[in-house]
Every structure is written in structure tokens, then in C-alpha cells.
Amino acid sequence: MLKGIDNRLNADVLRVLRAMGHGDVLIVADTNFPSDSVARATVTGELLRMENLTCAEAVQAILSVLPLDTFVDDFAGRMEVVGNPAELPPVQQEVQAEIDHAEGRHRPMIGIERFAFYDMARQSYAVIQTGERRFYGCFMFRKGVIPPES
């Protein structure tokens, strides 16, 4: 255990979150996403796991240490529901609430078409697989910066 660090963040996840730079993309995925095969194509080349958590729980822990990119509109994204891209299933609503909480205001995620999401995931820095079993629990986060102290 470490003081001030969410205990849901394991050493592998912390290592990768720390190593990422401004603009690097992180994927947080449900159990149905082809996480292992996609993760092999990422910068890290390995799958990270937070498999005892739902997507919202994992995102809450991740956003406790990961700043989101405030310079771009695509700071966070969600896999669109096939046939109904505007639909926000409960799992996506829960993750949006965690983003809003971390940012202190409502900042909506962009929608990303399913196959475009797969392509983005393969080009990402890392993939974290959660224990989420609900469909469309697949998200993208772009790392931001931490400003200097005033």
C-alpha cells in the first residue's frame, strides 16, 4: 500500500500511467474486448489488468492520478453502440460521471465507431482490461499535463 495512491491501481498500471506522455492514449476495456490481441500492437505490447473492477471503478482510480488532455476535444471517447451511435448505455453513463467528477465539470466523451475504436486501440499506448461484463464498456483517454505550481 502507498499513501495517497488508490489501492485499486496495481504496480503495472501505475508504471504505465507514469510512463505515458502528453497526448498518449490509454484504452480501458470490458471483458469482451479483444484486449490481449489488441494490446500486443500497442506501445507497451502487453495487456494490463484491473479485472476485479467495473469500468467505472477502474476509471475512477485511473483518473485519481491521470490528468486528461484539456487542449483537445477528443480527451476521452467511448465505443459507439452499433446501430445506435447516440445511445449511452448505463456503463457509459457511469464512466461519464467519473470523468465529470474528476474534471469538476461536464466534459462529454466523443463517440468512436466500433472498428475505428479497434484501430485507435491498436495505436494506443496501453490497454487495460477490466472485469466489466456489460457491453460497450470500452473507453479511450488522452493523457494531459500537470501544470507547474504557482
Topology of this protein?
Layout: H1 11-19, E1 25-29, H2 35-39, E2 47-50, H3 55-63, E3 76-79, H4 90-103, E4 110-112, H5 114-122, E5 126-130, E6 139-142
Parallel strand pairs: 1-5, 2-5, 3-4
Antiparallel strand pairs: 1-6, 3-6
Catalytic activity: alpha-L-fucose = beta-L-fucose; beta-D-ribopyranose = beta-D-ribofuranose
Protein name: Ribose ABC transporter
GO molecular function: D-ribose pyranase activity; fucose binding; L-fucose mutarotase activity
Structure write-up:
The chain has about 150 residues and is of the alpha/beta class. It has one domain (about 25-140): RbsD-like domain (RbsD-like fold). It is about 30% helix and about 15% strand. The protein contains 5 helices and 6 strands. A 6-stranded mixed beta sheet has the order 2-5-1-6-3-4. Helix 3 packs parallel to helix 4 (about 90-105). The N and C termini lie far apart (about 30 Å). The relative contact order is 0.31. The mean pLDDT is about 95. It catalyses: alpha-L-fucose = beta-L-fucose; beta-D-ribopyranose = beta-D-ribofuranose.
Essential attributes:
globular, fucose binding, 150 residues, 6 strands, isomerase, alpha/beta, RbsD-like fold
Bulk shape: globular
Strand composition percent: 15-25%
Regarding CATH, which class? Alpha Beta
Mean pLDDT: 97
What is the CATH homology-level superfamily?
RbsD-like domain
Strand and helix order = HEHEHEHEHEE
Q: Gyration radius, to the nearest Å?
A: 14 Å
State the strand order across the main sheet. 2-5-1-6-3-4
How many helix segments? 5
Distance between the terminal alpha carbons, to the nearest Å? 30 Å
The proportion of residues forming helix, as a percent range, comes to 25-40%
Q: What name does CATH use for the topology?
A: RbsD-like fold
- Main beta sheet: 6 strands, mixed
- In total, how many beta strands? 6
CATH architecture: 3-Layer(aba) Sandwich
Number of domains: 1
Which structural class do you get from the secondary structure elements?
alpha/beta
Which residues form runs of ≥5 with pLDDT under 50? none
